[in-house]
Each structure stands twice: as structure tokens, then as C-alpha cells.
Amino acid sequence: MATPSELLKNLDYLHPLNDEERDALSKIGKPIFLSKKTKLVESGDLFDHVFVLTTGLLRWYFDSDDGTENNVFFTSEKEHAIIAGIPEYYDDQKQTKYTIEALVDTQLLLFPKDQFEELAFQHKGIFQFYIKSLKVIIGTLRNRTEQLCSDSPSARYEVFLKNRPYITRNANRKYIANFLGITPNSLSRLTARIQKKPPPKK
After folding, report:
1. CA-to-CA separations, 85 to 50, 94, 130, in angstroms, rounded
2. Which strands sit side by side in the sheet containing 49-55, from one edge to the other?
3. Across-strand partners of 112?
4. Residue 58 burial by CB count (10 A; 0-12/13-18/19+): exposed, middle or buried?
5. What is the mean pLDDT of residues 51-74?
6. Rounded-to-integer distance, Cα 63 and Cα 78, Å
7. Helix count (H) and strand count (E) of the chain?
8. Cα–Cα distance, 165 to 163 (Å, whole number)
């Protein structure tokens, strides 16, 4: 497995970091490899780390009181390069209700959250990456909320196909259907309808 220093060096979106900042991160980073279907975190765990996904795909889900599974997030470096942590961090909690599972073989770089934030306040490049990540997360949540409130299932799915092709190809369709708030059968009908559409005129 690659060392933290090697992983950081190969991450294109971290190129704005200078050598000192990369060295500081490499000293607190821990590479983790998750094979497909392996869980990084399970509901009820105490998780006091943040992480950068270097390759792969994660799904974030939790079970309702009635046992219904809710797929809330998908994370892939193919779409958004961010530093991620459990949502409960924003309420100053370390115990999570989410399970985070690898949908394909996945590699990430794990950092103790407190140490990462300490470095962010010491180094401009790390701070800027942290702020950029938070903006991406907030923007993703805003878009998802607005889509669920105002867009039709068909419109939500077409946007998903357009903006998240890697997830479309690699995530189980029942997870995608649940994420979109529809049944797998409805998703199959939408897929068939979209495939029958004539291509746009040039």
C-alpha cells in the first residue's frame, strides 16, 4: 500500500498545497484500503476522523426506526474531491448513526479530526482545502433538498445520470432508487423511458 506521502503527492486536487503542508498531512495520515462491501463505519460507532477518498466509491446510509434503509450520500473522488467526516461533527458529536460502506474497492487517507483542524489553522493551503470541502458539502445538501422538494422523480434521475455517471455505473440500482426517493421498479421504468427518447437535434 502507498504511503501517506505518496498518496498526497498523486492527488491532483491537492497540488495547491506546498511541500511543508503535504509533509504535515503525511505525518498524521493513515492509508486505509476497503474491499468491496467492507464498512468503514457502522451505526453506533465512535468515529473521530476525517478522510480523503483517493480512489473508489462509498455509500452513506442509516436505518429508520421501522428498519427502512435510507441511502443519503454517495462519495467518490471521481465527482467531488473533499475532506469528509460524519455529519454529526457539525453538532460536536463523535457517535454516528450512519454506516459507510465501500461499493467498489476503495482507498482513502484517514486523519484524526482534531489534528487535521489544528493543521488547517496553521497552514493556508490546508485551510483553503477544508473550506472548499465544506462548500461542496453544503452545496450538495442544498441541491439534494431542493430536488426532493420540487423536482419530479424523472427530473431527479436525469440530473443524477448527467452529473454522477461513475456512481450510476457502479452503485446497485436499489441504492440509487432509494437515494432518489423512488422504488426500484419506478427506476426501471424511468430508465426505459429515457432510453427511448430520441437524441437531441444538433
Report:
1. 5, 10, 11
2. 30-34, 106-112, 49-55, 83-84
3. 49
4. buried
5. 91
6. 27
7. 8, 8
8. 6
Query: Under a CB-based contact definition with an 8 Å cutoff, are residues 125 and 18 in contact?
Result: yes
Residue 1, SS3? coil
* CA distances, 88 to each of 97, 107, 132, 159, 178 (Å): 8, 23, 19, 28, 22
- SS3 assignment for 123-173: CHHHHHHHHHHHHHHHHHHHHHHHHHHHCCHHHHHHHHHHHCHHHHHHCCH
Question: What is d(CA 29, CA 115) in angstroms, rounded to the nearest whole number?
Answer: 10
Mean pLDDT of the chain: 88
- Residue partners of 180: CB distance under 8 A and separation at least 6: 153, 156, 157, 160, 187
What predicted TM-score, i.e. pTM, was given to this entire model? 0.86
Residue 25 pLDDT:
92
Instruction: Report how far residue 89's alpha carbon sits from residue 194's, in angstroms, rounded to the nearest whole number.
Output: 39
Angle between helices 173-180 and 153-163 (to 10 degrees): 130
Query: What angle separates helix 184-196 from helix 153-163, to the nearest 10 degrees?
Result: 70
Asked if 88 and 94 count as a contact pair (C-beta separation under 8 A), the reply is yes
Centroid of chain to Cα 129: 16
Asked which of 1-10, 11-20, 179-188 is least confident by mean pLDDT, the reply is: 1-10
pLDDT above 80: residue 95? yes
